[in-house]
Amino acid sequence: MEQVGLKGEIDHLGRIHIPKKVRDLYGMEGEVELVLTPEGVCLRSPRFVLTAREEEK
């Protein structure tokens, strides 16, 4: 799977903008889960289902 990197800002209300192209790519619609870990932040969409796994090179 291709990595997607984004750079943006958090507005004064604590919101972040996820571009439509990315939301469409990962099926993000409605509720999205924000997961905080020591390694970073992860967004998960209940609608996103990984159908193939990229082989490690």
Task: Provide keyphrases for this structure.
57 residues; alpha+beta; Pemi-like Protein 1, Chain: D; 2 strands; 18% strand; globular
How would you characterize this protein structure?
The protein has 57 residues and is α+β, with helices and mostly antiparallel strands. It has a single domain (1-57), classed as Pemi-like Protein 1, Chain: D. It has one helix and two strands; from the N terminus they run αββ. It has a two-stranded antiparallel ribbon with strand order 1-2. Strand 1 and strand 2 form a beta hairpin. The protein is globular and about 30 Å long. The two termini are 12 Å apart. 0% of the residues are buried.
**Highest-level CATH class:** Mainly Beta
Order of helices and strands: HEE
CATH architecture: Ribbon
CATH topology: Pemi-like Protein 1, Chain: D
- How far is the first residue's CA from the last residue's CA? 12 Å
Q: Going across the major beta sheet, what is the strand order?
A: 1-2
Uncertain spans:
none
Tell me the number of helical segments per DSSP (H or I, 4 or more residues long): 1
Determine the structural class based on helices, strands and strand pairing.
alpha+beta
Number of domains: 1
* Radius of gyration from the alpha-carbon trace, in angstroms: 13 Å
In this structure, how is the largest beta sheet organized?
2 strands, antiparallel
What's the overall average pLDDT, rounded?
77
Tell me how many strands there are: 2
Q: Fraction of residues in helices?
A: 10-25%
Strand percentage lies at 15-25%
